[in-house]
Amino acid sequence: MPSNGTPTKKKRTWHWLLPFLSIFLGISLFLCFCTYSGRLGPFCALALSAPPPPFGVITDGRTVYLYGGPTELLSAREAATGNLLWEKKGLANTLVVHHGVIYAQTGDLKRLTALQARDGKTLWTSSQAIASPPSAPYSLAHSPVVVGETIYGKFGEELGAVRTSDGTLLWKTPIAASSSWWLRAVDAGHVYVTEALSHNQVQVRSLRASDGRLLWRHEQQTLPDAWPPDGMLQITPVGGLLLLQSPTSLVVLETQSGKPRWTFSAHSGQTFSEKSIVARDTVYLATFQEDGGATISALRLQNGKPQWKFHAFPQGINALLFAEGRLYIESEALYALRTADGSVVWKNPQVQFGTMLFARGTIYGDGTTLSAVSASTGRLIWKSESAAAGGLVAIDESKIYLSTQGRYYCDESSWDLRVYALRTTDGSQAWLYRNIHPYD
């Protein structure tokens, strides 16, 4: 150091470098510890792309079919034990089970396979692309649509029908100049497709199910700048009527002619927070307004005549369920309503659900915890802090099934996909399926 006390250039350099070196050393030690212990968790999100979606689950009470994942796996397992019955890869991004036959669709829409559900034997394979209606708002998923002895689907830019017995193409018809349309619903005599005409305009078309002949068109608005616009429109055929629900209106058409029967519009500032439920000639709608809470409206299916209203708390409505003549809603608590007048049968503030399923007089709900509630009294039967909370997907008479992404491990660069089977009696775990797949 010079006599005037001024640091030398070398010491000034170390003065600035030491803090950065300390920070770098600390981060390195932390990463090494986490990598060694397998506990890096969400920090790895910076290094890995988005995880694959959880496995889909379908059960008939005896057999559970798991499908999807990075390898498009189809795995049939005993519902009681989880033991493997048969398994195939590269077949099923989505599937449907119909009359003892599995129709499995690959994610690239290039292969549809029919298999015997009992043993996985391949019955036939079609290289034609089959696409499906959306499984939820804002999402256009892909899966086979089976009605009777026919599979309906999207073949590139054309709509087609395939015979379930052997995969033979029955008919095919062009829909639009581009492939930006979707098969949305099928009933006994009609096939319904949607095409986005603009950022907030959707056209609904009805075609004859027997030969694909165009019957009628209907145009409807959705929210401005919604994408995809037709993903915002929910379509439900029921009793000779077609319900078209956008975020702000419900339009009911006659399926034979496409003529409007009646319309119900949300008030200014309101939106529909859940898909409508149709039961016993009544439509149940949930509307939400940020400064005014949520409302359940009961309307006559045939004419839209209001029957009653139920006003929920400002938190909104998270889930709706109709079972055994009652309407169950989850807001800041779980309510059971009489469908005749909307009066409260019981209220349980102990549970908060995002998803509800019903079986044998019990409501099973999934939110921050898993819970079982008596449908008749509202009594809490059991509650579980399971790590699987948030993934309730299927139910049979003895088990509920939850599918999660689990956690992933940076030391192995793998995804951990899990399916839990829990006993309906007490929420205890019956078995667990894990699929740890290396990240590609």
TrEMBL record:
<dbReference type="InterPro" id="IPR011047">
    <property type="entry name" value="Quinoprotein_ADH-like_sf"/>
</dbReference>
<dbReference type="Pfam" id="PF13360">
    <property type="entry name" value="PQQ_2"/>
</dbReference>
<dbReference type="InterPro" id="IPR015943">
    <property type="entry name" value="WD40/YVTN_repeat-like_dom_sf"/>
</dbReference>
<feature type="domain" description="Pyrrolo-quinoline quinone repeat">
    <location>
        <begin position="364"/>
        <end position="436"/>
    </location>
</feature>
<dbReference type="InterPro" id="IPR018391">
    <property type="entry name" value="PQQ_b-propeller_rpt"/>
</dbReference>
<feature type="domain" description="Pyrrolo-quinoline quinone repeat">
    <location>
        <begin position="58"/>
        <end position="177"/>
    </location>
</feature>
<feature type="domain" description="Pyrrolo-quinoline quinone repeat">
    <location>
        <begin position="186"/>
        <end position="348"/>
    </location>
</feature>
<protein>
    <recommendedName>
        <fullName>Pyrrolo-quinoline quinone repeat domain-containing protein</fullName>
    </recommendedName>
</protein>
<dbReference type="InterPro" id="IPR002372">
    <property type="entry name" value="PQQ_rpt_dom"/>
</dbReference>
